[in-house]
Amino acid sequence: NAGVTQTPKFQVLKTGQSMTLQCAQDMNHEYMSWYRQDPGMGLRLIHYSVGAGITDQGEVPNGYNVSRSTTEDFPLRLLSAAPSQTSVYFCASLNPPNTEAFFGQGTRLTVV
Amino acid sequence: GIQVEQSPPDLILQEGANSTLRCNFSDSVNNLQWFHQNPWGQLINLFYIPSGTKQNGRLSATTVATERYSLLYISSSQTTDSGVYFCAVPGGGNKLTFGTGTQLKVEL
Q1: Which of A40, A88, A96 sits opposite B94 (nearest CB)?
Q2: Which of A10, B61, B78, B106 is most deeply buried (CB count within 10 A of its CB)?
Q3: What is the DSSP letter of B49?
Q4: Pick from B41, B90, B98: CB nearest A99
């Protein structure tokens, strides 16, 4: 099994550009989530989904959109990138009631 | 929401030394995870441990849920142990709350 796969690994955007970070999991997990990690900080929750068709906001949702059309995929969209969104982004999945989370390898995003 | 604190924030060890990392949390939890973020940024699952003790090679973890803390033990440290160690606990809706991590550097 590949587990949780994120693409791309690295991305540079100009301010105002849009892009989608892809996340896919092959473990049939119901719950998926996106986190961002900034220097010297732990991970903060952006958005999460408890199943296909259901999404909700986390701790830092502003500037990001998500959708969940299938169990496997949970893309994160930046509609108009800002330098404050420069960060490392992680996608994770788990299968309740087991709360062990599995993470993708991360996407390092720089907005200039 | 639940608060998670880790100590120490930074740690430098000589290869072969042992260490203990601590994670305190502010509320009752039904589980806890330890992760290692390696120098390449990957988050690696170490332990999923609601209570008791688990061991995996040179690493072991103990969670005392009633006292709201968990400990990660690293024995005979190696340079490959370098990186950041995070603990995380599930809050409402399976949302994970992370501590700010312990930065470990193991030197020759």
Answers
A1: A96
A2: B61
A3: -
A4: B90
Query: Is the Cβ pair A48, B95 closer than 8 Å?
Result: yes
* Tokens found for residue A42: 């732990």
Rg (C-alpha) for chain B, rounded Å, is 13
The structure tokens listed for B5 are 């604190």
Spell out which residues of chain A touch residue B41, defining contact as CB-CB under 8 Å.
Answer: 88, 105-106, 108
Q: Residue B63 carries which DSSP code?
A: E
On whether the CB atoms of residues B93 and B83 are closer than 8 A, the answer is no
Q: Which residues of chain B have pLDDT under 70?
A: none
As a whole number, mean pLDDT of residues A65-75 equals: 97
- The SS3 assignment for B66 reads helix
Contact criterion met (CB below 8 Å) for A22 and A104: no
Quote the pLDDT of residue B1: 84
- Residues of A with CB below 8 A from B30's CB? 99
How far apart are the C-alpha atoms of B97 and A60, rounded to whole Å?
13
Tell me which residue has tokens 């087991």.
A98
For residue A73 the two structure tokens come to 């995929």
